[in-house]
Amino acid sequence: MYHLSSKSKTRLKSSSAAVLAYRVGLKLSDPHDHTMKFPHRNIREIQNHFVVNWDSPGRSDGRRETYQTILNEIGRTETRCNSRLWREFEIALPVEGANFQRAKLAEDFATQLAHKYGVCIVVGIHTPPNTDTINHHAHLLATTRCVERTPNGIRLTKKNRELDAWKMLKIVRKLWEECLNGYYRRFEIDKEVSCESNKERGIGKIPTIHEGPNSRQRKGDRWKANETIRKLNKRAPAGATSPSEVFALIPAIQDKLEKDLHNTNAQIALLEHEIVEKLTHEKLSPRQKKQMATWCRHAFETIDSGGSPDDIASKLKEALRRGGVARGAYDRLRKSLPPIGGDIEVQWSRQGIDLMASLFDAPCDEALEKLKRWRKGGTDVTPLALANLEDPALLQQIHDWLTAPDSTVDPDKEIEKP
Questions:
Q1: Extents of the domains making up the chain
Q2: What does the mean pLDDT of the chain come to?
Q3: What is the pTM of this model?
């Protein structure tokens, strides 16, 4: 895994103390406005921090006093409102090895960089926030001015303009490649990285993009994009020499997906036709007709018995609470009827059962009026329209009902009279 990025920090967008406090996890004073800046992060993720080429040409301990001295020098030399305060290099550290080995790798790289450009570098090594991520990385904050040791102390002098050149980034990336490959060879790890792109190396694969520490856990857009890139790379021909040859596979893949979608839609249409046919010809079985006749007689006698709507509704509710007439025949009948469709008799039966069930939800007067109108209508009612069969959930529900085994109720058992 190779990652190195570079960016500059200016007074227009950031504070020199805030930038440093975030990387090393210490409270520091800003030399420009004399305000205290805090880390604003979980400092337990900061595994180590130190300074290269300040007190000595090599490594120095990262102490608050040292950092504050560096900030004071930056405040003394960078007086313009748009001055560049830091040049930051962010590197991804290898997963292999221990923390002290990764720290030594970052120190070696920072030392070479500091001696090459004559600047001071503050190194902050950060560990992953949890065990699920492998985001070991380091922040290298380089001063934009050269370091000079005088009898009066350490001073920041002239600006190092080399750090602003575009070719500088290529040189630094190549330097990090050499350090990282040397680390792998030293510990006999079978890996090798390169700072060059796949196109420059003649590799016919599409490069993946940077995901970030938590993109894989969230399965965000960057993770999805990389998954697509990996699948495309697997389909790449063996002799591919450029990513454009892999991109050329996309039209063929798109055609195949369109054909698969067409076939799927055709299967859904056949299933819909089959469901409509079965629902249209669904009829009541002899047992269902017998149960329906018994239930209707009980309901009609209750409605015609007189009394207030509340009394009639109470009697009907009581029958439902006991499981319906004929020891649960009502419940069995309600479960056995199809959810939608069927011939007119099936639809009329379902309407009546649903109206009885609505007694518990709707006002008694309204529910009883609907029941009376339903009774007068008999089976001469307008068939109900089929539900929206484009709804996948409803399609699955109907399909389960069509393919479910028959009821285990004995059809020859005599129905008990109410």
A1: 4-186, 198-247, 280-403
A2: 80
A3: 0.58
